[in-house]
Amino acid sequence: MPEPGRALPQPTPETQHFWDGTKAGELRLQRCDDCRHVYFPPRPFCPKCGTRKVSVFAASGKAILDSYVIHHRKVPGFEPPYAIAVVKLDEGPRMMTNIVECPQTPEALQLDMPLEVVFAQQNDAITLPFFRPTRG
Amino acid sequence: MPHNTVAVVGAAETTKLGVIPDMSQIQLHADAALNAMADCGLKPKDIDGVATAGETPVQIAHYLGITPTWVDGTAVGGCSFMIHVRHAAAAIEAGLAKTILVTHGESGRSRVGNPPRSVPPSSLNGQFEQPFGPMGPPSLFPIPVLRYMKTYGVTHEQIAMVSVVQREWAAKNPRATFRDPITVEDVLNSRMIAYPFRLLQCCLVTDGGGALILTSAERAKDFPTKPVYILGTGESVETPMVSQMESFTSSRAFSVAGPTAFREAGIKHSDVDHLMIYDAFAHLPLFGLEDLGFVPRGEAGRFIAERNTAPGSKLPLNTNGGGLSYMHSGMYGMYALQESVRQMRGTAPAQIPAAKVSVCHGVGGMFAASGTIIFSNQKP
Ligand SMILES: [Zn+2]
Hints:
- The complex is a heterodimer of chains A (136) and B (380).
- With 136 residues, chain A is mainly β.
- In chain A, 6% of the residues lie in helices and 36% in strands.
- In chain A, strand 5 and strand 6 form a beta hairpin.
- Chain B has 14 helices and eleven strands.
- Chain B has helices spanning 25-40, 57-64, 80-94, 124-128, 137-140, 145-152, 156-170, 184-189, 217-220, 252-265, 284-291, 300-305, 322-325, 333-345; strands spanning 6-13, 49-52, 70-72, 100-107, 192-195, 197-198, 207-216, 228-237, 274-277, 357-364, 369-376.
- In chain B, a hairpin with a 1-residue loop joins strand 5 and strand 6 (197-198).
- The model of chain B has no long low-confidence stretch (mean pLDDT 97).
- Strand 4 of chain A pairs antiparallel with strand 5 (192-195) of chain B.
- Zinc ion binds at residues 32, 34-35, 37, 46, 48-49, 51 of chain A.
């Protein structure tokens, strides 16, 4: 039996657009048509003002490293030590992710460093958004 | 709602704490409940209200042979029991019940008779956190720490002192799991769990339970135990996902629950003789001290490192040794409440002389929820 891989999301009707987006190479967020609040995770209404008038849009994919831990225990699908990070997107919301193409050390992982999204296909249905240090 | 009209009259932990492989989770609830009833001379037929988390109030009422007129199954993690106390006080004031039992029991280490932990992959946590490799609280709860340290210039050594000072308190407590002194070097050389936190900055995992019995302050006079009055209470919740906290340098749930309790109690910080802040991990006392207004923003690390919460200080904090050294079954809030009650009764192993006011502040989930109870042993 192959080793079990990482836990994968099971999209719901309210989140399907996000996972369709990552598959298509877009990081999709939502914006309130009334109060302009940009929010995450997905839901079909604005958590700030309660209106159902919201739109999906493709975010820039740019972010900064907000905070993280470097996990040292064994988890299916991961080779410790690895960072579990939270990034702050340029559009405002935060999201949990992994930082790739970067040593998983406190020296390499500097808070506030600029990052950009990369998309990593896991299977036919799921592509996860990871972030890497911005190039150039 | 100003309280002081409701009191804790019964309080006890399970007979044993630590590793209890011969008891299932529901029996840990019952063992603590029977001890609390014995503490104040009551039988199950005398109880008309049941609040619990981990098990449902249905399971606990049936198991103990109680026919309640009021139940509360609020289950928001380790501070559920603070919130139960708050709801129980309101229920007694409203006349919904006269004598309320709050129980906790958890086979956190032996895992006898408790459901397996899992995160459904369709939940928001399952979709937007689990795929990135967390494995339980040690991998998630410390996520805000590096941001907090950078914002305020807090050092690893200062945070390590949280564990050192709490071990000093634990050394005074015969029931504490870990009692041998430790140094900052010991903390910073212990096994890395999730950088920046090491083993000695993460809570224990043990088995145990605790129970409280509350009634009106009026009736409390007729009980054999010294009444411990509820002066003020607060509660709130923020987010099930640590990644979605409004801030990584403050807990919104703490900032609502704590000040609400202080307003209800009508006390100042200088009135507080004894403080419990739920310490599943070493940064929680820092966030608690700041969000409850005991110290200015960013100063809690220095405050603890300079021994302002240590034995002999003016603000004794986590005097049982805390979740870091005393015990931690998973939902630690009940043990913090038990220590506050002991301090107000004058029966704590590390008793604070002449303590009159105790603040007990809890967290649930990874900063998901919070509950605060302010106790006093002074007659209303
Ligand atoms: Zn809005």
